[in-house]
Design goal:
Blueprint: H1 2-33, E1 36-43, E2 55-58, E3 61-71, E4 79-86, E5 96-100, E6 108-112, H2 141-147, H3 149-166, H4 169-191, H5 193-299, H6 301-306
Parallel strand pairs: 2-6
Antiparallel strand pairs: 1-4, 2-3, 3-4, 5-6
């Protein structure tokens, strides 16, 4: 019994010594780490790959580790990650946290974006909903791709399904027919290419001739413009003088007609009737004289002197 009791005491003392040694080693390790500051990060995304003890780095330099990961009680859409960072790390206002994932499945937290002369992140400069200052998250490019990978895969599957529907047997036959028609059209165009080139050459010649004609027309217009500008004023003056002369002649003719109107009335009323009577008398005299001359020529002077012989009276 005494031997068994001695063994029990020896085992108990040994376990106590081992526990003390472990506590001492932990204390020494913590003493070597120095003082650390704790911060909370609220991620509204998947934190797969993170675990307690995951590395925390600042601009790529290891500065701490993850101490706690849990759903945030105030809003379960967020995951609260608590980190411990060395006290001398400049976690200043402007610093953001990013989950840096990898294809191996192991993720780390990357702190970056501190600004010079900015105040440190404390409960005085930021919110402390759980008693520790909050470091705002920033979604990194690679982590954004990984976070949206399920959505991308879903869209890729939908696209693949639609492509399969588009490229069925009937559509493939129609696409092949379209390609054949396109080849035939290309061959036809290649055959008509010389004619097209000739037509383009003729069109270019026509355009050149049209340009020359336009130049000639422009020169003519310029010459006409110069003639009008140089001689137009003198022509206008001459035309104005001619019109003035015509107006003066018209006025003079009107005055002359007004003055001759009484004489014309007298001529038509007196002179012309007297002249007509005189002309009739002259006509009668002329007929009588013509008869006398005819008798003189036919019967001699005696017939004229004797006068006409009266016919014998017969009872």
């Amino acid at each position: 019994m005494e031997t068994r009791a001695n063994h029990i005491w020896v085992g108990a003392v040994t376990l106590a010594l081992l526990a003390a040694l472990a506590a001492f080693i932990v204390w020494i390790a913590r003493l070597g780490e120095g003082a650390r500051n704790e911060y909370d990060i609220l991620f509204q995304q998947s934190v797969s790959g993170l675990a307690n003890g995951s590395q925390v780095s600042f601009a790529g330099v290891p500065v701490g580790q993850v101490s706690q990961i849990e759903l945030w009680e105030q809003d379960p859409e967020y995951v609260r990650v608590r980190i411990k960072v060395q006290e001398d790390v400049p976690v200043l206002v402007g610093t953001t946290a990013t989950i840096q994932a990898s294809f191996t499945g192991v993720s780390t937290i990357l702190l970056d974006g501190a600004r010079k002369d900015a105040p440190p992140i404390t409960c005085e400069t930021t919110a402390c909903p759980e008693g520790y200052p909050l470091i705002p998250p920033a979604r990194g490019g690679f982590n954004e791709i990984l976070a949206s990978a399920p959505l991308l895969l879903e869209r890729l599957a939908t696209l693949t399904e639609r492509l399969t529907q588009v490229l069925d047997d009937d559509n493939q036959t129609q696409i092949a027919a379209i390609l054949r028609n396109t080849n035939e059209m290309t061959a036809s165009f290649a055959e008509t290419a010389p004619q097209v080139n000739a037509t383009l050459a003729e069109l270019q010649t026509t355009l050149s001739e049209a340009a020359q004609a336009l130049d000639s027309f422009e020169k003519v217009m310029n010459s006409t413009d110069r003639v009008i500008n140089s001689e137009g004023q003198s022509l206008v003056r001459e035309l104005r003088a001619t019109f003035e002369s015509i107006n003066a002649a018209s006025a003079s003719l009107a005055k002359t007609l007004d003055a001759a109107e009484p004489a014309a009335q007298q001529l038509s009323q007196t002179t012309i009737p007297a002249a007509e009577a005189t002309l009739r008398d002259l006509e009668v005299t002329s007929r009588a004289l013509r008869k006398a001359i005819e008798r003189l020529e036919s019967q001699g002077a005696g017939a004229v002197i004797k006068g006409e012989t009266l016919p014998d009276y017969k009872p």
